[in-house]
Design a protein that fits this description.
This protein has 760 residues and is of the alpha+beta class. The chain has 22 helices and 22 strands. The strands form 4 sheets. It has a 6-stranded antiparallel beta sheet. It has a 6-stranded antiparallel beta sheet with strand order 14-13-12-17-16-15. The longest helix is centred in the last third of the chain and has 75 residues.
Length: 760
């Protein structure tokens, strides 16, 4: 019994070790076979034990032993079923992989007969080759090479991979295709017992390799063609790639650059301040150390015996997957020396244009020659380093220069207005021979010349003079002085000449503007005197008409009345009655003429009362409805303002009666602290003001021209609003404080002329 027990336990332990073996060591079929064998052995042992006499009586020990053996048999059967299922799944996966794989697999025996083919082999060869000689689908010229491969694999005692062999095999189209064959000996493997051959079509790989070579050639061509220098540096600091542009930038050859190592390179790179770059400052080494790209690092490259060049360097790291730091850095190098020089020249040109624009703006805004000269001199001193700059103009007698303006660190106002004889001017020659004259060193040129004495005494060593021409006429010069010798360059001289030309134009314009302003002031004064004389003459004539002619007519009327009381013939009485009518009408006309010339009410009661009386009287005569918006007791205004406003209403009302066909006229008078507003409106037919204003500017439209000129003498302005069918409004604004000016002429607005907002 003990022997049987030990036998069963030994089988169980061997069974467990067999089942627990790895699938690579024991295949699924072997495991299933072992499980069935052990199950059969266990049943046989159980049967023999049950037939043993001690167990025949079915004792508890026998039952326990039988139960253990039955349990062991069940486990063995279950493991066997699992092994068969694994075997089936493995074979199915292998079958699917072979069916769908593009890999051509062929198994041949020692004689070269095909014992197995994958579906891909049948598709490639176009026919089933199982059982055929493998040499039948190999090109005759390649059979020797193929046979040598098979022989080498057949002689191998263990599984090994043969060298690559290229042969031509027949394909499905009846032609030959180039293939690569690799083989492995599996003669000792049970279930295989042959040589495994793998046929591979190298055309796709060759296409990939060809595309890779073409891409590499394109990359190399692009790198060589670009104008920027490109170098690649590996982790050791050695240059491994360099294009021709980079070699040209460094003034070397590609081979010399490729043989360089950054650590041993001569110190030719400097920062923008001129300090040599240390190894830690090199962009490529910094990128290798940190893995961070650098963009547009500026540095100077200085070769012995050559001018310094400015480089812009950008770096890009190249990192392998999974590695923190790059194994290579690509550097892009650009020589931006010429670009920076062009940018600087462009900046200076733009600055110069801005400078000239400021000068032109100063010329347009500064109407006084002194202010303009000071502005330009300050601008000149900001561009040309000098301690003193002055402008002198030729006096009208053409024999003297008069200092107009001085700009200096310590200006001497006592020199302003000082006159210098042309004969004693140290730059007398430029008035005849040129635009510019420069004295580089007064100490070397001074030999007691009185023309240079005051400059030498003031401590100046160099000076420059530039003439001012306007309309081909010499009007003065610009003089610059410096205590340094040779302080002025040719470029500075050209700049001063250009600025002097602008200054000459500005001074000439300022002089002409001053002359025109003086002429306008004289004209305005004469016009004011003329208007005053005209009003005085009107006042005198009105007084003469009222006092002399009016009284004479009244006496004649009284005498005729006295004659009528006498007994006279009827014919004489009729004649006297007719004479009385004529005298009465003449007296009315004389009084009206006197009022039109100068109403006494305007002088006695003021503008508002005179307007109310005059407009009311004329409206009754013309059968118009008059409306008034006048202050009850306005303060008295200057005589010329009251006269101008009254004459404006006279002229406007006359135009309304003659041309407007109106039924209503309105007068508005509004006075503030600093301005007087007077407007007259009607509801007549209206008109287009544009042609009327154009005619007025050319001397026509005498009524509007008279109104405008009278208001202009009072610094007032006139506005006309009118359109056909919508009536007319004339508005006048007259300043009541000194210094308030007005436009020279009315301007067109929405319906004709541009009016003040208060007049709409």
């Amino acid at each position: 019994m003990l022997a049987a027990f030990y036998g069963v336990t030994g089988m169980i332990s061997r069974f467990r070790s067999w089942l627990s073996a790895s699938p690579s060591a024991v295949g699924p079929r072997s495991r299933a076979t072992a499980a069935l064998a052990l199950s059969a052995g266990a049943l046989a042992t159980l049967w023999s034990l049950l037939g043993w006499p001690p167990f025949a009586a079915r004792s508890p020990l026998a039952l326990l032993w039988a139960l253990a053996v039955a349990l062991l048999a069940g486990v063995a059967l279950r493991q066997g079923r699992a092994a068969r299922r694994d075997l089936f799944d493995s074979e199915n996966r292998l079958r699917v992989l072979l069916a769908r794989s593009a890999e051509v697999l062929v198994v041949v025996d020692r004689r070269g007969l095909v014992t197995f083919t994958s579906p891909a082999a049948d598709r490639l060869l176009g026919r089933p080759v199982l059982g055929l000689q493998s040499l039948d689908f190999i090109h005759p010229e390649d059979r020797t090479r193929f046979t040598t491969l098979l022989a080498a694999l057949a002689e191998s005692t263990e599984a090994s991979l043969a060298e690559l062999c290229q042969v031509r095999a027949a394909n499905a189209h009846g032609s030959w295709c180039c293939t690569e064959v690799t083989g492995a000996s599996a003669l000792a493997e049970p279930g295989v017992g042959g040589i495994i051959l793998s046929f591979h079509d190298p055309s796709q790989q060759r296409a990939v390799e060809r595309a890779f070579r073409e891409s590499e050639q394109r990359y190399a061509a692009v790198v060589e063609a670009i104008a920027e220098g490109v170098i690649a540096i590996d982790a050791s600091g050695r240059v491994v790639l360099c294009n021709a542009s980079a070699a040209a930038i460094f003034g070397s050859t590609v081979d010399l650059v490729l043989s360089c190592k950054i650590e041993s390179a001569p110190p030719l790179l400097f920062d923008m301040a001129g300090r040599p770059l240390g190894l830690d400052d090199f962009p490529a080494l910094a990128t290798l150390r940190t893995g961070q790209p650098i963009c547009q690092f500026l540095c100077r490259f200085q070769r012995p015996g050559h001018d310094a060049r400015v480089f812009s360097v950008s770096t890009q790291p190249i990192v392998r997957p999974g590695e923190p730091l790059p194994y290579m850095v690509v550097c892009s190098i650009s020589d931006i020396t010429d670009t920076r020089a062009a940018s600087e020249a462009l900046r200076l040109h733009a600055s110069r244009l801005e400078f000239l624009r400021q000068i032109d703006r100063a010329i347009l805004s500064a109407l006084q020659p002194e202010a303009l000269a000071h502005t330009v001199l300050d601008q000149i001193r900001s561009s040309v380093r000098c301690e003193r700059a002055a402008v002198a103009l030729i006096h009208p007698d053409q024999r003297e220069l008069q200092i107009l303006a001085i700009s200096a660190d310590a200006p001497d106002d006592a020199q302003l207005g000082r006159r210098v004889s042309l004969g004693s001017c140290p730059f007398e020659s430029i008035f005849t021979y040129g635009m510019i004259s420069v004295i580089d060193d007064l100490q070397a040129s001074y030999d007691g010349d009185p023309a240079l004495a005051h400059l030498h005494a003031a401590g100046f060593r160099s000076c420059m003079a530039v003439t001012l021409f306007a309309n081909n006429e010499l009007i003065g010069l610009v003089h610059l002085s410096s205590p340094r010798a040779s302080a002025f360059t040719q470029a500075q001289g050209a700049l001063v000449v250009e600025l002097a030309n602008h200054l000459a134009v500005g001074l000439q314009n300022a002089r002409l503007f001053s002359q025109v302003s003086a002429a306008n002031q004289r004209l305005r004064s004469l016009s004011r005197q003329l208007m005053g004389a005209q009003e005085s003459e009107r006042r005198r004539i009105a007084r003469e008409l009222h006092d002399e002619i009016g009284q004479a007519l009244a006496l004649i009327k009284l005498n005729i009345r006295a004659l009528q009381r006498m007994e006279l013939p009827e014919t004489v009485s009729l004649r006297l009655e007719q004479s009385l009518g004529i005298i009465e009408e003449t007296l009315l006309r004389v009084r009206q003429m006197a009022l039109d010339l100068r109403p006494a009410m305007l002088d006695d009661l003021g503008l508002a009362s005179a307007l109310r009386w005059y407009v009311d009287q004329q409206a009754r005569l013309a059968e118009l409805e008059a409306r008034f918006d006048l202050p009850e007791a306005p303060p008295r205004l200057p005589t010329e303002i009251e006269t101008a406003c009254f004459r404006m209403v006279q002229e406007a009302l006359a135009n309304t009666v003659r041309h407007a066909s109106a039924s209503q006229v309105s007068i508005r008078l509004e006075q503030s602290d600093d301005e007087l507003l007077l407007s007259i409106s009607d509801d007549g037919v209206g008109f287009d003001p544009a042609p009327v204003l154009a005619s007025m500017r050319q001397g026509g439209s005498g009524g509007l021209l008279s109104m405008h000129e009278r208001l202009l003498l009072c610094d007032g302005r006139l506005s006309i609003e009118s359109s056909p069918g919508h009536g007319t409004t004339l508005s006048a604004w007259v300043p009541l404080q000194a210094g308030v000016t007005a436009p020279d002429a009315p301007t067109e607005g929405r319906h004709g002329t541009d009016s003040h907002p208060a007049g709409r």
